[in-house]
Automatic annotation (TrEMBL):
InterPro entries: CRAL-TRIO_dom (IPR001251), CRAL-TRIO_dom_sf (IPR036865), CRAL/TRIO_N_dom (IPR011074), CRAL/TRIO_N_dom_sf (IPR036273). Residues 92-257 form the CRAL-TRIO domain. This is CRAL-TRIO domain-containing protein. SUPFAM superfamilies: CRAL/TRIO domain, CRAL/TRIO N-terminal domain. It comes from Drosophila gunungcola. Pfam families: CRAL_TRIO. GO terms for cellular component: membrane. GO terms for molecular function: phosphatidylinositol bisphosphate binding. SMART domains: CRAL_TRIO_N (SM01100), SEC14 (SM00516).
Length: 313
């Protein structure tokens, strides 16, 4: 008997057509990936069925690609200590402050809508003297993992990020940390199993619009074409349905405060997971003894040469 949630018909149609999902074979595929994970001495990882299923969907049910992405997920986390560190807990006061400020808003959708999920990032809504850009990314990464467990729209149809630049100052722009943005974008592209469908910068000050277009250079090649930049306040209605948007954005959906409260409650329900995840990761010394060299392995984070190449059995 399957231990994962069944998909609604519209999402099942997408999963079958685009992701090669075969409903009666899903549990067998999960068990095959789990068996491989448990045999890897260098990996300390979550092996819950729903979590593993996200990697299978994210690689169109190619077991070999799922292995590679799963390994990369934990390997690259270890290479971004600014984000993946001991503050990445559901009870961390800084994490809770960022949620309560509404810096990140996961937009509720109709239960039968098969489209990609949407997150609004209010890039100008935090105090740069109190929080760093990496702190915002840390909270976003936590909800990215929660989506892998809970949001079939994210694992099947992907996700869209709306970067609202209202109120952005020079201090916010300086705090963007392009190198970190580039590293985390590579992680999102190579290691996260959910599919990035678009990054939309809205309410960009007209004087800075050309400069923001240059941010494309910090993103992986295939994501660059999914980035849009505009100063038009009404552009958000072309990205997100009005009935989903918070009232503060001219929509008819829940208020930003209500969304933030829902997100905080959801994060709280994952307290044990994020506590456990503090011990997840890779031991590179054990990787060398526990795997065989693979001919076509790839390095991550460009040509910097400071990150070990992955070898997947």
């Amino acid at each position: 008997m399957s231990s994962v949630r069944p998909l609604k018909p519209a999402l099942m149609a997408i999963a079958t057509r685009e992701l090669n999902e075969v409903p009666h074979r899903v549990q067998q595929d999960i068990e095959a990936l789990k068996e491989w994970v448990l045999k890897q001495p260098h990996l300390r990882a979550c092996t819950e069925d729903q979590f593993l299923l996200a990697f299978l969907r994210g690689t169109k049910f190619s077991l070999e690609r799922a292995k590679e992405k799963f390994d990369r997920f934990y390997t690259l986390q270890g290479s971004i200590p600014e984000v993946f560190n001991k503050r990445r807990l559901a009870t961390d006061p800084q994490v809770l402050d960022i949620i309560r400020m509404g810096v990140l808003l996961q937009i509720p959708m109709d239960v039968d809508d098969p489209g990609p999920c949407v997150t609004i990032i209010r890039a100008g809504s935090y105090d740069t003297s109190k929080y760093k850009f990496q702190d915002i990314i840390r909270v976003g990464s936590m909800f990215g993992e929660i989506m892998m467990f809970e949001d079939e729209n994210a694992t099947v149809s992907g996700y869209v990020e709306v970067m609202d630049m209202t109120g952005v100052t020079g201090a916010h722009l300086f705090a963007l940390q392009p190198q970190l943005l580039s590293k985390f974008s590579t992680y999102a592209d190579e290691a996260m199993p959910t599919r990035q469908k678009g990054i939309h910068f809205i309410n960009v000050p007209a004087a800075f619009e050309a400069g923001f277009n240059s941010l494309r250079s910090f993103f992986p090649a295939k994501i660059k074409n999914r980035i849009s930049v505009t100063s038009d306040p009404s552009a958000i209605f072309e990205i997100v349905r009005r009935e989903y948007l918070p009232k503060e954005y001219g929509g008819t959906g829940p208020s930003m405060q209500d969304i933030s409260r829902t997100m905080e409650a959801k994060l709280s329900s994952y307290e044990t997971y994020f506590q456990d995840s503090q011990s997840f990761g890779v031991d590179e010394k054990l990787r060398e003894f526990g795997t065989h060299e693979r001919k076509n392995h790839r390095s991550s984070f460009g040509a910097a040469g400071s990150f070990r190449k992955l070898q997947i059995d």
